């Protein structure tokens, strides 16, 4: 039995005791998502005890080595444990204090416990899959029903961070320090250049010169401007894509979406999560029908979520501020697509494994046919948007 498994089983024993599971049996099944997750070993857990319903749990144990951690600009495991053990509790207390109806509160997985030991971090949550939740197929574009519900949940997360800054300004200032973006562009130059070389090989000829010009402009400008707050600082998710969401359809037909993987929380602007989600999870056909509609839907739901928290959207984040940030940050969607889409669309058997990776450049994956189609569609979109 590995050290991590021993730590996990010890943590599970503690959880079982806390929930009065006496003389219990713990079954643990480790699994991989094949290209959807790169930072953790995943585990399904069943804790059984006499005269008790089975306790269905889900655990993540860290597999990122020290060399890789030095290249990642986030305290990814500490961030997520802090979110579930501390920040989420404060958000939930705010929802109660402001009498937010239960159906309009941020949907989250129940937190059971964690181990904070460096290089052996573990997080234990409820197993949503046992309740009928599943992840979206990352190789397929999402539809309007899924996308609109996902950004509705995103708007709740963003609204809570804005309300938190109003209700607890000193605590929010502390979060601004904790979640300050630490992206080191120089540290990632090798990965970025390797990724660009691979992406350029699959672009349509008429797109290559446009992308070269765009990338030169990004290099000349400060990349940090994309991820910094402009008019309204918020706590951004930072990795808001379908693989980090779970959904289910209730018996009455309503879709539920739960946000997961709060490893890359950062103080930023609302637009980066929207661009990340839209361009990592949709195809050109979806965006032709719903791109502007989805942005407007997000802002409407943000206003509704703020109102339920007794915050006036016109005061803290008027529509003109949203449109200003959208214009400035929209190109992030293009840059992110060039870097991310090959990883999002990689076949499971070709996905790199974090426990065998020592350099971020190992994630510079050659785009497959689906990635090439998606990339050229994104570029055509940004031509129409006037960015290229």
Count up the helices.
Answer: 14
Tally of DSSP β-strands: 9
Question: Structural class, please?
Answer: alpha+beta
Rg to the nearest angstrom?
21 Å
Based on CA inertia axes, which overall geometry fits?
globular
**Unreliably modeled segments:** none
Measured by DSSP, the beta-strand proportion falls in: 5-15%
Helix content: 40-55%
Q: How many angstroms does the end-to-end distance come to?
A: 54 Å
On the 0 to 100 scale, the average pLDDT is 91
Helix and strand pattern: HEEEHHEEHHHHHEEEEHHHHHH
The description of the largest β-sheet is:
5 strands, antiparallel
Order the strands across the largest sheet as they lie in space. Answer: 1-2-3-5-4
Describe the structure.
Residues 123-308 form the CHK kinase-like domain. The chain has 388 residues and is an alpha+beta fold. The chain is 49% helix and 13% strand. Helix 4 (144-167) packs antiparallel against helix 9 (270-281). The chain is globular, with a radius of gyration of 21 Å. The termini are far apart.
Task: Please summarize what this structure is.
This protein is of the alpha+beta class. The chain is built from 14 helices and nine strands. The protein is about 50% helix and about 15% strand.
